[in-house]
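retry 2 of 3: previous attempt timed out while embedding coenzyme A. Reduced batch size to 1 and resubmitted. Inputs unchanged:
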Amino acid sequence: MLLKALLKAPLMLRHGSCGPYVPAAASPPRVVPRPALTSRLGTSHSLFTQTLTDMADDDTVTELTQEDAPIKARGLEGVIALESSLSSIDGDTGTLIYRGYDIRDLTAHATYEEVIYLLRHGALPTRSELDEFTAHLRSERSLPGPVLDLLRNAPDDSPPMAVLRTAVSALGMYDEEAEVLERAANCRKADRILAQIPTIIAAFDRLRKGRDPVPPLDHGSMAHNFLYMLNGEEPHAAAEKTFDVCLVLHADHGLNASTFTSRVIGSTLSDMYSAISGAVGALKGPLHGGANQEVMRMLLDIDEQDADPAAYVRERLADGDRIMGFGHRVYNTMDPRAAILRDMMRELSEEAGEMKWYEYTAAIHDAMEAETGIAPNVDFFSGSIYYQLGLAPDLFTTIFALSRTAGWTAHLLEQWSDNRLIRPRAQYVGARGRTVSPIDER
Ligand code: COA
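retry 2 succeeded.
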């Protein structure tokens, strides 16, 4: 029975609908041997097509099995693992597009809710489509009682990302549709997760400070409602707009580590809650989303020590440390999101009459440029913007998760529209031919 349902699933997923469904373009053929890529490493590879002859420099290599062959894409750098029509990064020009729209155009002319819709459906919503969509998101903002209890019982000093990961997983236990794989149900779950993550973050932040959670509003944008639930008062329009732009900027970013994680989990035909809680876990790391709070820690450290930011960075580099908020696997130039955030931060600082954090970041940027030539990424400026909005530094990565849920859920729907199990291979470098000796003789 179950097997039958699973075998049917891909068909159901393709033909289900959620709201005004924009059919995917005709399914591309499955990945077959294609011209190999040339990565920054100067090697040629493709996840599915690596052949022994590609790798053979001499006869000894051809003796190896594929599993034994030398790794050509450590960290999967440069590997094309799947096809996606959601977002694209041009690392040389510093361009990011969602569904064909430049991120600069979207931050200037669209809200986060419009971007969620765009990522999911492939087209920007009309006024009535947006109204219907936002009304549905608003109706899903409250948490099930047991999930709120879980937040009440979480230790106050738990990392907020650990709390979020656990709470997202718990939400699945209280969703009757959690195991229904049909597309319309998956869209409804995506809406619930998108609507409830802000409530989880805000409720935990208040509870750990000994305050009561503020119930969600039944009006206002996601940015507005989140800031309201966090602070207990409705935000000014400027704060809402700034926060909304940050959400737009973080909504999707190609096949980054957490998105890949979500698609790997989704590809096993597991459920959306499993995939999103796994993605939250991947985003938590300091080499991915955790970098933004590390940046703020560095700025606060500089401030506390009354240190010269450029000298501080040079010292850290001399010690072999990485400077958080710099470097990227795909961009060879400045991350376009960082450029937008830098300008926003300058404006915010000027309006607030507090230029200190902006000046620190500008000095660090110059020092990194001079010392390493490595450019800032999105995390370098987002942290200090959130800080200026009054958010606690250890919440920064949860806000990244709040926004990236738009991308994760859209990627899962895309994955399930033409699913194939994601299952690469490892190069085995361990021992062979050993035999088990009796336990007393070891
Ligand atoms: N500070 C100092 N040096 C850095 C650096 C940073 N932030 N980022 C990369 N480098 C250096 C590495 O030390 C390495 O130098 P080496 O070749 O002399 O050893 C070189 O640049 C390449 O780094 P590598 O780790 O191989 O690149 P990657 O593509 O695997 O890593 C990141 C990409 C994002 C993980 C990496 O740039 C980083 O750790 N950045 C800081 C964390 C961060 O901001 N993450 C958020 C990403 S949006």
